Amino acid sequence: MSPGTEWRATEAAPVILAEPDYPFWGFGEVLVTLAMFIPALGAGAWLVQIVAMKYGLDPKLGILELLAQSIAYLMLFAVMAAMFARHSRPLLPSLAWHKCTFQLRTLILLGLGLAVTTVVLGNLIRIPNVQTQFDKLLVDVPSRIAISLFGVTLGPIVEELIFRGFLQPVAVEAMGVLPGILLTSVLFGAMHLMQNDFIWQSGVLITLVGCVLGLVRHVTGSTRASALTHVAYNSIPFLILLFAGPPNSK
User: Fold this and answer.
1) What is the DSSP letter of 25?
2) Of 38, 113, 149, 211, which has the most beta carbons under 10 Å away?
3) How far apart are CA 170 and CA 27, in angstroms?
């Protein structure tokens, strides 16, 4: 370095924590909206059944199950959009889908680290190596590809908007930060528990994942941030699934 050269330390942009949420909806709206998901699933399954009969397909194919679930999600978001329209509020901004001050790489590294941590914890608590109902959806190549791609794209976004965008602000406002995040995470784990044949170890791990995602959502004030973390978390198991072939049938 030549004499007189000055070095200036670069300062990282400060991380600004989010303001508290003040949702204009409550548990009543949450219960009504989520109750609509059951008939929406039925409607999705009925539409897929018609498609399967028309083209001679097995309605239990994973790709058709994914289509039925996607139809149900569309109906659910239509109900939410209609509810928010009554308050003259747009859907996505109301669910905190906006930028945050946290860097993208921080969220990605957090998600990847969370995925590795759950693998380690799963080995420690000995998750049974059995074929679940979810695994049975992955036996054919088109289903495995479709479900894997959904799992690292729209799937995490949809789940974050519903759980961390719609449910968590209401739970946190009513119960406090930690109890509200815990309640949301337990419901998040319960939904996945049903997909994994009620293996309790899976339920515990996914509930812990939900707690981390809930903290990301609360600290950043952004469901986009928790969704990016969720995408990074899902990327490892779903990409392994995509390239490693169908799960074993033990």
Assistant:
1) -
2) 211
3) 7
What gap in Å lies between CA 86 and CA 40, rounded to an integer? 21
What the block records as the tokens of 47 is 């539409």
Nearest to 21 by CA among 209, 176, 213: 176
Sign of CA dihedral 155, 41, 135, 250: positive
User: Residues 23-57: pLDDT tens digits?
Assistant: 999 999 999 888 888 899 899 999 999 989 988 88
Over the Cα atoms of the chain, what is R_g? 20
Other CB atoms within 10 A of residue 101 CB: 15
What pLDDT is attached to residue 14?
55
Residue type, 43: A
- Look at the block and give the residue holding tokens 């990605």: 108
* Nearest to 65, CA basis, from 159, 134, 12: 134
User: Residue 215's closest CA among 122, 115, 114, 90?
Assistant: 114
Q: How far is CA 116 from the centre of its chain?
A: 17
Q: How far apart are CA 100 and CA 192, in angstroms?
A: 28
pLDDT digits (tens, 9 = 90+) for 177-212: 999 999 999 999 998 887 788 899 999 999 999 999
